[in-house]
Amino acid sequence: MDSSTTWTRSPRRRVSCTGCGLVYNLDAKPPTNTGECDRCGGKLEVRADDRETTVHSRFIEFRGSTEPLIQYYGSMDRLARIDTTGGIDEVGKRVTAVLDGLLGIEAG
Ligand SMILES: [Zn+2]
């Protein structure tokens, strides 16, 4: 999974009310008045967790901690790389195929 995929999957199109905490998904459920809570009239802000920089720095951190494992298992020929683009079903089938291969199960 590259960082651009992570970004498009992240729920960064969300804002929450600073007054009552209600969360709005700007694609699915936008507030009636931009920047204002429908329930209490409070100010809407992008949640810190959802900011692109937070997601991006998490990805950098993830790479930093997994890279040594990739090197280690790769050097022992015990690393399977699975393409994580596509839907859950698609990726799930790829994971299952790899596991079946390891367990010696015939596909079908
Ligand atoms: Zn509110």
Task: Please give a structural write-up.
This protein has 108 residues and is mainly alpha-helical. The chain has two domains: 3-77, no CATH class; 79-108. Helix content is 44%, strand content 9%. It has three helices and three strands. The protein has helices spanning 3-9, 52-75, 88-103, and strands at residues 14-17, 23-25, 44-46. A three-stranded antiparallel sheet has the order 2-1-3, with no helix packed on it. The longest helix is centred in the middle third of the chain and has 24 residues, at 52-75. The radius of gyration is 20 Å and the shape is elongated. The chain starts with a helix and ends in a 5-residue tail after the last helix. The structure holds zinc ion. Residues 17, 19-20, 22, 37, 39-40, 42 line the site of zinc ion.
Write a concise synopsis of the structure shown.
The protein has 108 residues and is mostly helical. It has helices at residues 3-9, 52-75, 88-103, and strands at 14-17, 23-25, 44-46.
Strands, total number: 3
Q: Mean pLDDT, as a whole number? A: 84
Bound molecules: zinc ion
First-to-last CA distance: 27 Å
Strand and helix map with partners:
Elements: H1 3-9, E1 14-17, E2 23-25, E3 44-46, H2 52-75, H3 88-103
Antiparallel strand pairs: 1-2, 1-3
Zinc ion binds at residues 17, 19-20, 22, 37, 39-40, 42.
